[in-house]
């Protein structure tokens, strides 16, 4: 097993040219709000229902320039945002959307220089966000079993220019991770509770763990596993993002909304051999206390019932708590 290497990748320069260059990814936005992501290549043409544009006419222009197709339709030339890169990747799987990905990066506490493990990679949408966050001095270690997903993610990372900050593994995490002492671990697998010991082994002390699951029964299983595996600071969250129509005189929500996509569960590994339960949430402690009282009452009721059946004392029924 390897300890993480915290030296930054070589031969990478973080700079933005004031004008577009050959090989650069750009976004064209139509007046109707359609967005097209593509790479500028000399001699090529961008084709759309609004007409075509030669790439040569787009190379050397400042970002934010209004350009026109060969039949006169105006389009806006922009630098791609992280959301553009994530939502317009080539897909072989369902992707994690920006509304969840951005918050996952926050919960993993990532910044330039962080080292983070991801499993599984899928089409690499979240991998892009992770690499974007840890560059230029950090590294993403991502695990994926399926060859098709592995290759698609590699192409999406290469296209976005983020491959130097990602090390891919086409293998199962059933036997654990290759890394030790990483800052964070993210699991996007069907049964993340099966791999919590591997997560503890790979994380540095006090590191950050997050997982995304779509159903409540998976959340329940993961919560049980986290409590049993020595994790604390446990949170369960769901993100709902509502967009508004940007009309000053008629500001109102969009007619459609991206609703439930998954539950984000976050936790921290702890070392407390004497009493790990002291770090459970207050809600969890209150629930445990109530269950203990109910168990005491049930036990006392059984004792009194047995005593009555034997011809002993007659007791009034004990009141239930709350």
Shape: elongated
Task: Give the topology string: H per helix, E per strand.
Answer: EEEEEHEEHHEHEHEEEHEHEEEEH
* CATH domain class of the largest domain: Alpha Beta
The CATH topology of the largest domain is what? Rossmann fold
The share of residues in helices is 25-40%
Low-confidence stretches: 10-15
Present the secondary structure layout.
Elements: E1 2-3, E2 25-30, E3 35-39, E4 45-48, E5 51-54, H1 55-58, E6 66-68, E7 74-78, H2 82-87, H3 98-107, E8 115-119, H4 125-134, E9 139-143, H5 147-160, E10 166-169, E11 179-180, E12 182-187, H6 196-202, E13 203-213, H7 216-228, E14 231-238, E15 244-245, E16 252-253, E17 263-269, H8 282-309
Parallel strand pairs: 1-11, 8-9, 8-12, 9-10, 12-13
Antiparallel strand pairs: 2-3, 2-7, 4-5, 6-7, 13-17, 14-17, 15-16
Helix pairs in contact: 3-4
What does the model show?
This protein has helices at 55-58, 82-87, 98-107, 125-134, 147-160, 196-202, 216-228, 282-309, and strands spanning 2-3, 25-30, 35-39, 45-48, 51-54, 66-68, 74-78, 115-119, 139-143, 166-169, 179-180, 182-187, 203-213, 231-238, 244-245, 252-253, 263-269. The chain has eight helices and 17 strands. It folds into three domains: 25-80, Vcp-like ATPase, Chain A, domain 2 (Roll); 83-278, Rossmann fold, CATH 3.40.50.150; 281-322. The chain is an alpha/beta fold and 322 residues long. The strands form five sheets. A seven-stranded mixed sheet has the order 10-9-8-12-13-17-14, sandwiched between helices. A four-stranded antiparallel sheet has the order 3-2-7-6, with no helix packed on it.
